[in-house]
Amino acid sequence: KVYVDDDLDDVADKLIEEKLLAVPVVNDAEELKGVIVATQLVKDFQEEGFEDAQKMFGAGSDEHASSGIGYTIRQRLPWLQVNLLTAFAAAAVVGAFDGIIAQYTILAAFLPVVAGQGGNAGAQALAVMLRAIALDEIDVRKPRRVLVKEAMVGLLNGVAVGVTAGVVAGFFGNNVALGIVVAVAMVINLFIAGVAGASIPMVMERLGQDPAQSSNIILTTVTDIIGFAAFLGLAVFLLLIYMVGLAF
After folding, report:
1. Count of CA atoms in the C-beta half-sphere (13 A) of 190
2. Which whole number is the average pLDDT over 95-119?
3. How many Å apart are CA 115 and CA 189, to the nearest integer?
4. By the 8 A CB rule, do 100 and 236 touch?
5. pTM of whole model > 0.85?
6. Do the beta carbons of residue 90 and residue 228 sit within 8 Å?
């Protein structure tokens, strides 16, 4: 049996542990108040998962394909405005390096490559972390082990992807320095993406907020800004070294 105030996750664990198809629900006086059927519980968890997925991308948790236009706009538009502000922040980073982009236009072609890979890597860590929090697999008050793991995964994946991207960029641009910049920037961005993807939902959970609520928008902002800054900053750094070398 389970009690009326038992957590739904605990009820699911009991059903799985005891291999039950249903379980009676009682109050503190041991009076029968209903029955939870396993199939209905699965449906509830599926619905909860879909709601979290929608919230992660800034849609309403109770929004459906049949929802009215006005309601759908009210649910989505505020987060689109937030996303616009974060996009302006990323654009400001690019604007700060407009000089070197104007001088070496080939850099513009690889900006979305570095930022996009960081976003994908961060989303992988984010998805795993949201599942871990939902299933109570980790203690958000002791995040060190998980953060170290995701940081290492991001670093090693960054090296692997960075080498590939660097070789392609160097060949495409016929410039070894470009390949180096792309490779190193990829390593930096994927490392940060892993840490951000794991930490954002844990921080939101500690603050008492829903960890799924538009976490992907926050993550994309971080990976875009870091990716742009790392890539263009390294390009400026190598250019300065080259100019100093010419001076001597």
Report:
1. 25
2. 89
3. 7
4. yes
5. no
6. yes
SS3 sequence of the chain: CEECCCCHHHHHHHHHHHCCCEEEEECCCCCEEEEEEHHHHHHHHHHHHHHHHHHHCCCCCCCCCCCCHHHHHHHHHHHHHHHHHHHHHHHHHHHCCHHHHHHCCHHHHHHHHHHHHHHHHHHHHHHHHHHHHHCCCCCCCCCHHHHHHHHHHHHHHHHHHHHHHHHHHHHHHCCHHHHHHHHHHHHHHHHHHHHHHHHHHHHHHHCCCCCCCCHHHHHHHHHHHHHHHHHHHHHHHHHHHHHHHHHC
Q: Residue 117 pLDDT more than 80?
A: yes
Residues 56 and 50: their CA atoms lie apart, in Å, by: 10
27: left (phi over 0), alpha (psi -120 to 50) or beta: beta
Among 54-63, 161-170, 194-203, the range with the most confident prediction by mean pLDDT is: 161-170
The residue among 176 and 143 whose pLDDT is bigger is: 176
Average pLDDT, the chain: 83
Distance of CA 139 to the CA centre of its chain: 19
